[in-house]
Amino acid sequence: MDTAAEKIIIGSEEWCALPQLGIPGVKVRVDSGAKTSVIHAFNIHAFKRGTVAWVSFDVHPLQNNRKVSLRCEAPVVDRRMVKNTSGASEKRYVIKVPMRLGDQVWDIELTLSNRDSMGYRMLLGREAMTGRVLVDPSASMNLGRISDLELRDMYGITPSAKNGLKIALLASNPDLYSNQRIMEAGEERGHEMVFYNIKDCYMKLDDETPEVHYRGGHIVNGLDAVIPRIRPSATFYGCALTRQFESMGVYVQNSSLAISQSRDKLFSLQLLIKSGLDIPLTGFANSPIDTNELIDMVGGAPLIVKLLEGSQGRGVVLAETKKAAQSVINAFKAVKANLLVQEFVKEAGGKDLRLFVINGKVKAAIQREAAPGEFRANIHQGGTASVVRPSAEERRLATKAAKAMGLAVAGVDLIRSKTGPLLLEVNSSPGLEGIESATEKDVAGMMIGAIEQQLKWDPNDP
Hints:
The structure is a single chain. By secondary structure, the chain is an alpha+beta fold. The chain has helices spanning 126-129, 148-155, 177-188, 235-247, 256-263, 265-274, 291-297, 322-334, 392-405, 433-439, 443-454, and strands spanning 8-10, 13-18, 23-30, 37-40, 42-49, 52-59, 70-83, 89-101, 104-113, 122-124, 133-135, 166-171, 192-197, 201-204, 211-214, 218-219, 225-228, 251-252, 282-284, 303-307, 316-319, 339-343, 351-358, 361-369, 384-387, 409-417, 420-427. The chain is built from eleven helices and 27 strands. Strands 2-3-10-4-9-8-7-6-5 form a nine-stranded mixed sheet. A five-stranded antiparallel sheet has the order 25-24-23-26-27. The protein has a four-stranded parallel sheet with strand order 13-12-17-18, with helices on both faces. α3 (177-188) links the parallel β12 (166-171) and β13 (192-197). α3 (177-188) crosses α11 (443-454) and α4 runs antiparallel to α5 (256-263). The longest helix has 14 residues, at 392-405. The protein starts with 7 loop residues before the first strand and ends in an 8-residue tail after the last helix.
């Protein structure tokens, strides 16, 4: 196809099929800014068929649906470095398969990468479109839509009977990976899942009939359980709502008290120490006059300065010299910000461990490594995550920390020092994306399973 008249006009998103892979329909994001096309793939394994290199992989072809999973195989065309959406390079397998778009079929190259955190399971890059399509970015589904009913027929999906629990997710953003996974995991297990946005809830305080109302005057009732996933900026109101559900007799996976304790970094460290758990040497002061004493208290520079209100690595600064430490501490205090000063554990090497604790047991663990040029491991800021096997002492420390906070579900962060593991903090709303992607474990499903266990729910009961 060379002339414009012969080219297909497509929108910013379309449905296509990959018959050779057994994928009858996948919604694709059209991105002429990307050179290479990519499809969501996990459980990727290379193997030989005779003398030819092949690769097998699993695909979740439908958005927000991990229940539909296909096993695919294809010959390997190449293995090359490709930049992902965050700008980091990763080595990917490349396959070449026919794609059907509208009534046209042609071969395209696809790289394989885990896109669980992305909205679209496939991205169509310009190499696959050159000479064949024109893109109208203001249009969508120019070549037709596929209804939910048609998708059910294509993939043999049988709708789950909702004979389970009614579980509410109390959070702020329904599009976050963690929130989507929890909703999805509950539905897969036959439960009725409801999302309530914290800002759209309001309360009736009454000693006889306490109520929570949702936008439009809807009275929230009939709930068996609530999963609070409260962002730091919504802690006060989110905890107030959680307390309201508790007063209504609804089971709450993490209590309002436990969430409040874990969000107060100073108080949480004091609770951990009271429970006999090890933390990095830490100092706290209110007056700028005490800056030098505070620095000396934790062994001098280099040291870490942490804002008490910071989250996801924000508000954490490494001061490499005493002068730098004085400047940072006094600058924070000048704007009346509360802060902690903490010893810098050099031997940790910019790595920390995240242990996911559910009902007193470590269910998954990853090691997070800082991005180049950073001193603190944080996957929100370009860091990487990998599977790790925590020691018995690290497991004990994590489960005791979650218990000290009173949390049924917790993400416990610790570092390895020359004196043993040290606790950094305990999170009441730990993210699922990094730990599920690295470990390939259904952590969201484990959270739902913990609620089933707590409420003694049996799917086999009539």
